[in-house]
Amino acid sequence: MKSLKLFAILFFSLLTLNISAQQKKYVMVIHGGAGTILKKNMTPEKEAAYIAVLTQALKAGYAQIQSGKSSLDAVEATIHILENDPHFNAGKGAVFTHDGRNELDAAIMDGKTLMAGSVAGVTTVKNPISAARAVMEKSEHVMMVGSGADQFAKEAGLEIVDPKYFWTKERWDGLQRAIKEDSTKAVLDHGNKKSELLGIKNHDYKFGTVGCVALDKAGNLAAGTSTGGMTNKKYGRVGDAPIIGSGTYCNNETAGVSCTGWGEFYIRNVVAKTISDLMEYKGLSVNEASKIALDKVGKMGGDGGLIALDKKGNVAMPFNTEGMYRGTITADGKIEVSIYK
Amino acid sequence: MKSLKLFAILFFSLLTLNISAQQKKYVMVIHGGAGTILKKNMTPEKEAAYIAVLTQALKAGYAQIQSGKSSLDAVEATIHILENDPHFNAGKGAVFTHDGRNELDAAIMDGKTLMAGSVAGVTTVKNPISAARAVMEKSEHVMMVGSGADQFAKEAGLEIVDPKYFWTKERWDGLQRAIKEDSTKAVLDHGNKKSELLGIKNHDYKFGTVGCVALDKAGNLAAGTSTGGMTNKKYGRVGDAPIIGSGTYCNNETAGVSCTGWGEFYIRNVVAKTISDLMEYKGLSVNEASKIALDKVGKMGGDGGLIALDKKGNVAMPFNTEGMYRGTITADGKIEVSIYK
Question: Nearest Cα to A118, choosing from B327, B158, B120, B251?
Fold first, then answer.
């Protein structure tokens, strides 16, 4: 009788544990960029708008997963919402280059096959994440850049827009401020080695990239990232978002990863692949691996954040900035959205 | 007396071991591309020409190291020789895109600082490896693409040439053959899924990339890669060479790596960083790590090779093709150059 009682306790404990594990099985994680995001600088309206679109994006991807579609479909549907919303530095709402253009980068990767696609510097594709997916699925290549990538997207049947579609007043004003501040900074830097460098002198305009990692019912992971890059960027600068291994990487055996932040540091540290390798070769959890990889960026002087999701539904969302727009949804549809630390 | 004799034997044994270790300390390794390189298809004159330029390239870099200059200087000097020689698919002698242009990619990385620079799709810079180095040293960026990268190289004071400089008859004829064979292949592929893919249909024209890893007297590693990419490439396709972590990576704590081959597979496997991570996280030798990373490429259906050099002067040069133009030089100046298996 005593042993039966013990068995019953054990049984119900395991049941509870199982339910709790079920509830904590994440199937999607998204980010809308990391940076100097402070509550004191935010209006209640703006905050509500961010939360609303992050929630909408999660729901769009979750609907794909629930209907049995692939994690790639979920990532694409989710990122479409974020690209089409002007609040984020991706698709409509992308920042401007020094020359007043919107040059967009994106990448996507399939954790099951390790197939990947990316585009950099496209100017006419409404949804760059779909261009990245087309490169992966409709070409034998992984990366295409510039007008060639635009041409490919057109031939692949994607929606092409006039470059003016990407114009927003907020980003245009941001470029004017950046140009002004950079020229002031160049004067202040006079005599400093920094002033001899060609390129961006102000790093406060580099955030707002969007990304998503999803886990579908078949157990396959996919990861995607889309960005307008850095405000006032020159010389065809490309950041980490479209670089497989740096800003975007996905492998069913380890995790899917999408990064956001000061891209140069993410490339130099090959951040996304580092996370996967720390899991594969050192047996670390997705959380431990993500923290170590972000610490490498931080120690070099870089800042930003990242999202990662492993095949068991464990999630990591570290960042070393004031805030990161982010959200998760679990297998049972529970949504959590956060902005600040 | 007996113990003195034993001591003497031990002493001389250690001395011999030390000398042998000294002789086997490599300070540079280079490649000029991997591919279907068969002795039966090679004339003695052509073979001699390849051996001569590979030897000259090794000597150029070695002279830098011997004079106390940095491994970055050695890599740049070595790759200049290979870029300026029309035998290799880099700089002069680069293959043509589908549109009859030469679009050049290059990357360089400093193992001491993990600083890196890369360019993709430049058309007017005589030595793309120097453009990559300028991005690393004279900008705050890591990667620049297209005409922006050309403009940057010009402003950085590099030698600019008319795009015609890169034209060679052999490569032009190669493009005409590739276009003809691709159109034939497209007909043969009719009904096959492959024929629906946009892009290169023939993979026999992807080789000839050049690369170098050097170890200087201060113990610092540097790695660089330069390429014209794939013959008949379309849509602004970019391969692994300019992708930090894939075709090029360097870290004093592990190794410097430069890859050559079917770039798409190298990107999907993030090959160069994988080698570094296998060394750092699994404690493997540069040789073991290089073989495992290349095996991943091979298992997916990709082919090519790579060179790697660790901080102790151990070298690895695996390839899964018929041949790879390659060479090494040891600390005491001994040169070895090979082409076939």
Answer: B120
Q: Which ipTM value was assigned to this complex?
A: 0.90
pTM: 0.91
Nearest to A237 among B144, B237, B245 (CB): B144
CA distance A144 to A135: 8
**CA gap B329, B334 in Å, rounded:** 5
Question: What is the DSSP-derived secondary structure letter of residue A68?
Answer: T
Which 8-state DSSP code applies to residue A57? Answer: H
pLDDT tens digits, residue range B184-232? 554 443 334 444 555 544 444 557 799 999 999 999 999 999 999 888 8
DSSP 3-state assignment of A152? helix
Query: In A, residues 282-311, which contact B (CB 8 Å cutoff)?
Result: 282, 300
The tokens for B324 are: 């790879």
Which DSSP string do the residues of B241-261 spell out, in sequence order? TTSBTTTEEE-TTSEEEEEEE
- Rounded to a whole number, what is the distance in angstroms from the first to the last CA of chain A? 51
Residues of chain A contacting B152 with CB distance shorter than 8 Å: 198-199, 234-236
Which residue among the candidates B78, B124, B209, B328 is catalytic per the annotation?
B209
Could you say which of A78, A97, A123, A209 is catalytic? Answer: A209
Examine the residue annotation and report whether B16 is marked as an active-site residue of this protein.
no
Question: Which residues in chain A are contacts of B156 at CB distance < 8 A?
Answer: 198
